[in-house]
């Protein structure tokens, strides 16, 4: 081949390679990773949840075998947590595949993974959180110089409390006119309140009920009063996005099990309370007193609707609460395709993603 022609072909090849490389880069680091392929039902699914009445859908699904029935040959492994941030770490570390979790940590998981790690697939509970205080406290102003407990820094109740304090022009700190916020697990909070070491707590059910009934506290704020129509997502179901892509049939089975639990609980209140109490006894070694579980049950509504329209406000609340400098983006967080498929098959209306399914 003549030298000149060989040089022309070589130059063309280099140009083509450069173009191919440029295209590869344009579609590589800056482009979203390709979706994982559907691999059918998973061999095993790891599910996280809390031993709280606000996680009743999960507790009933386990106690009555609704999840196991729908999952079939897929093994269900479970792990309990006290608060959302620890559960987020397990999800992002891939030791969990799905989790019943508070709305605040759910948003944090989505933000920490830059919108790639987790997906909101359903709701679980609306309501079920209260600010309970000593009887001598009658207003927000009375909390100056007092100590309030929440389950964990940046968990759902922690954010709700700090938002409420800010709305009432109270600052978090250690000064005489500040409100000191401390974090402790729910059981410890009850002990601290009984000992007089704390003055109040923003707690989920059943712990708010136990603080009132066993600790002598009173309700200053029911969080339902802070939201339109008294509805807000206390507990939702999120899954690792990769797991959702690889095993949509398994996620659909979980959703069927949850819907079975919610429907059964709606029609069988007394039995549902008993099922929750049976699970709590297994998990904590002690069942709740009947008046405690009755009071807790009156605070919550079980629903597979994640009440997605509230999530933009929940993201802004993190800034108000001082948990985040800017509101985490929640666009693209929800994929309710499988949930609405399950609802449609059950003859129920679809639920809205509230725009969260759009990037």
TrEMBL record:
Keyword presence, Hydrolase? no
Q: Which residues form the signal peptide?
A: 1-26
Recorded hits in InterPro entries, A to Z, give: ABC_SsuA_sub-bd, NrtA/CpmA_ABC-bd_dom, TAT_signal
Q: Supply the source organism for this entry.
A: Kutzneria chonburiensis
Record localization: Cell inner membrane; Periplasm
Report which superkingdom the organism of origin falls in. Answer: Bacteria
Q: Which residues form a coiled coil?
A: none
Question: Which family does this protein fall into?
Answer: Belongs to the bacterial solute-binding protein SsuA/TauA family.
A UniProt-annotated Pfam family: NMT1_2
**Upper lineage:** Bacteria, Bacillati, Actinomycetota, Actinomycetes, Pseudonocardiales
Protein name in the entry: ABC transporter substrate-binding protein
Sorted keywords for this record are:
Cell inner membrane, Cell membrane, Membrane, Signal, Transport
């Amino acid at each position: 081949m003549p030298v000149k022609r060989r040089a022309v072909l070589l130059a063309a090849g280099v140009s083509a390679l450069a173009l191919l490389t440029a295209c590869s880069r344009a579609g590589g680091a800056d482009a979203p990773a390709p979706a994982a392929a559907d691999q059918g039902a998973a061999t095993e699914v790891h599910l996280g949840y809390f031993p709280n009445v606000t996680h009743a859908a999960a507790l009933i699904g386990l106690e009555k075998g609704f999840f196991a029935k729908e999952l079939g040959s897929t093994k269900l492994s479970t792990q309990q947590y006290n608060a959302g941030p620890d559960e987020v770490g397990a999800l992002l570390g891939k030791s969990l595949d799905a989790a019943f979790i508070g709305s605040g940590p759910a948003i944090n998981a989505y933000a920490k993974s830059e919108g790639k790690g987790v997906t909101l697939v359903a709701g679980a509970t609306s309501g079920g959180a209260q600010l309970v205080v000593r009887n001598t406290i009658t207003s927000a102003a009375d909390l100056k110089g007092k100590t309030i407990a929440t389950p964990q820094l940046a968990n759902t109740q922690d954010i709700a409390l700090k938002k409420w304090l800010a709305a009432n022009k109270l600052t978090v700190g250690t000064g005489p006119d500040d409100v000191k916020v401390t974090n402790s697990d729910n059981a410890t909070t009850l002990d601290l309140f009984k000992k007089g070491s704390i003055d109040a707590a923003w707690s989920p059910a059943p712990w708010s009920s136990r603080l009132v009934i066993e600790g002598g506290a009173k309700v200053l704020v029911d969080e339902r009063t802070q939201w339109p129509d008294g509805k807000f997502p206390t507990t939702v179901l999120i899954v690792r996005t990769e797991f959702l892509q690889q095993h949509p049939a398994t996620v659909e089975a979980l959703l069927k099990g949850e819907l079975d639990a919610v429907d059964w609980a709606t029609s069988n209140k007394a039995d549902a309370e008993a099922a929750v109490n049976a699970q709590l006894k297994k998990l904590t070694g002690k069942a709740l007193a009947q008046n405690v579980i009755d009071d807790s049950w009156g605070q919550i509504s079980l629903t597979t609707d994640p009440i997605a329209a509230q999530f933009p406000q929940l993201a802004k609340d993190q800034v108000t609460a001082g948990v985040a400098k800017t509101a985490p983006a929640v666009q693209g967080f929800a994929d309710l395709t499988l949930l609405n498929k399950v609802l449609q098959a059950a003859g129920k209306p679809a639920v809205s993603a509230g725009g969260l399914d759009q990037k």
